[in-house]
Amino acid sequence: MSNVRSAKETAAEVRKVLKATFPKTKFKVTTRRGAVYVEWTDGPTWQQVQRIAGSFSGKHFEAMNDCEYYREMQYKGENVLFLTYVLPQRNYSKKFLENIVKTYSKRYRVPALEVKENSCGAYIENPNLIRYGNDWLEHWYIQKANETSMEEESDRAELPEVVREY
Q: Which CATH architecture has domain 3-91?
């Protein structure tokens, strides 16, 4: 028999594990409409957080058959059914994006775009729609930001293997 965990219980577990793994990063973990949302600014990459937080996602959607299903998992030595999606979202500070633009514009000799900020956070503006390779330049800069972690290797604990499929 499985232990069933609600979105609220899942959020508490996700918060605890992320705080232990990335102690210098402040995570905002909330529940809305039965899903767990994880937000943070700068800090670790989306992939690093997804590896941990995403492992608590017991609810899945298969688009091919238009079907939603649940997956039982092993957690802390017991079978658990997490009844939620876990959706991470990384945000960027203006300072972080300015540093990305400065570093990569100099390294690759591409135009430095302007970093702006609004109530939703910082973003890169490409007023002249300059292309770099096959991408618009602002997307290229964001890709570089996505690959850059603000967490030093010595600042974070080893990325744990949190949950295993049962």
A: 2-Layer Sandwich (3.30)
